[in-house]
Amino acid sequence: MALFIKRIRDEGLSVKRLNIIMFIVSLIIYTALFYAMSLTGDNYQKTQEMTKTLLEWRKNSYNLQIGSDYLTEEIRSFVATGDKTHLDNYFEEANVTQRREEALSNLKKNLRDSDAIPALSSAMDESKELMKKEYYAARLAINGYDLETDEFPEEIKAVKLSEKDESLSREEQIHTAIYYLFDEEYNASKMHISNNISNCLNTIEQEIDYKQDEVNLKLEKQLLLERIMTIVLALVTLTIVIITNRLVFNPLNKCVERIRRDSIINLKGAYEVRFLAKNYNLVYYTTKENENQLSYEANHDKLTDLYNRRGYEFLLKNIDMKTSALLIIDLDNFKDINDTYGHDIGDKVIKKAAKAIFNSFRAQDYVCRIGGDEFAVIMMRADSSMKELIARKVDMINERMSATDGDNIPTISCSVGVAFGQEKISVSEAFKRADKALYDAKENGRKGIAFYG
What we know:
The protein is α+β, with helices and mostly antiparallel strands. The chain folds into two domains: 1-294, no CATH class; 299-451, Alpha-Beta Plaits (2-Layer Sandwich). Helices cover 71% and strands 6% of the residues. The protein has helices at 2-11, 15-81, 84-97, 99-110, 116-144, 154-157, 163-166, 170-182, 184-247, 252-261, 271-292, 296-299, 309-318, 334-341, 343-358, 387-402, 427-443; strands spanning 324-331, 366-369, 374-380, 414-420, 449-451. A five-stranded mixed sheet has the order 2-3-1-4-5, with helices on both faces. The relative contact order is 0.08.
């Protein structure tokens, strides 16, 4: 710097001219910095728009579910009470309000290429198909309550009852109509529709998360660009201050000291920094909110309320494997139950097994359903000294699953493989060991337990 100033003196270059050059350079940097900040503002605006869009998409997805549930509630109320008001409400929603149709139309406009649209369309088609059964039940209830059919919509008038249902007494017709809308087939259809809509919502949120990640990456690049330009601008400003101080304006030393006390390099208190802080805070809180909005259903199995595969993998990433034990549990000959009794009974067997397993372990242990008939238990603070205790727990599970309790659910047994954590053992290695032990248990006649090693 001293040589540079000496050269200016020797060559007779005026400070004013130098300041003009520095001013032009600074102006160029300021312009570039302002443009970068504008881009950051645009990315911030996109983040806001994406958040607003996510809320709108979620609202439409929920409206589809709410509309479907409302129709079910009203048609059930009608067949149960005979109150025509409920049927009027039903057709008001189906033919006039049409929340389902409006929600699906809005989503199709904004999510043309989304994987969620087929799931939504499928749910809508199933819901409309289910309405045929609701029309039939309503027509049967009208007969049972001896109501005038002329007062009801054409959809009801067009329904033809079967000879069997036509021959029923009025009381029997009412009971049959109620049965149609409360039986397992109807409830299973409703559950399937609800699951499709839930899967759609998860897909939408994943797509939004992906887009928000793209915006975050752009914001990070913009931040890096702004930092570089700010540093260059600070160096240019510092050069002007030093030259002006040494050659002309000694009082500017105080300005230099003030700049130094304010820590310009660290960008504390400046307008640009506050602007960036607001952007990054918003991005952070938006991201945090999206993470917190992961529903209970995302990490839990719908049938058993245990942790699902996703929850299981999350747990494995966050536990200390060397102080834990991993149990892999497989139901013996479960396929035969499904083939013999059907999937509905199979689901009941799964639920019974899940309850037996869950109730056999401590509150601090984690019970997961990781496959159709496969479960995993992560026992915290467990080592090989607990083999006998674990074996008793497995015996208790098999006893509970073999008890009939008058529930007409087929009995079943389970085989268990156990691996204890060790120093430097990986999660994948622990699973391989437990799976190897499970294989040994099955080879030794099933309905038992084997420990790795």
